[in-house]
Amino acid sequence: MRMALVLLLVLAVLVGCTTPPPEAEFTVVPTAGHAPMEVQFTDLSEGEVDTWEWDFDNDGLVDSTLQNPQYIYNDTGTYTVSLTVSGPGGARDRETKINYLEFATTCKADFVAEPTIGEGITRVQFSDQSTGEITSWAWDFNGDGIIDSTEQNPTYVYRRDGLYSVTLTIAGPYCEDTLTKTRYIEITRCPT
Which of 110, 130, 139, 181 is deepest in the core (most CB within 10 A)? Predict the structure, then answer.
């Protein structure tokens, strides 16, 4: 047994042991959200690795040489990320994940109406003044919890006197917000 082990060691020295080249792989948390967003990159490369080169925004520049870096994405957009790893003897491998990260801004609901005071049957024009990347609008013009319109800038006809609360709910790829203006529309009876 001892003789076999010695022979294996001698054979390994004579033939030479080669280290397989590294294989680049990584993961990111989170991959989507609101900018600015801090992102944790985790190296999952296999094989012997002695250098890491991260390109966080596909501009061809090395943004970090840490194994498991963090990076803050300040701007909205979709990002391609690359990791190049090197092993002993200069063996290299690259993993590129195209359109892997997507960050949007937050959104904030806001609106105005004209007029806000009327007599008798009154047509009111609502104007969305929300900010952010918005793809849907849901309006409740009389505070009854029922969606009355999904247009961005709708009109609504008030047919009865009263004080009306108005709610706008907006949504986008990564955000949602709701604004209620209580007792915002005042409709009175026509003088007789």
Answer: 139
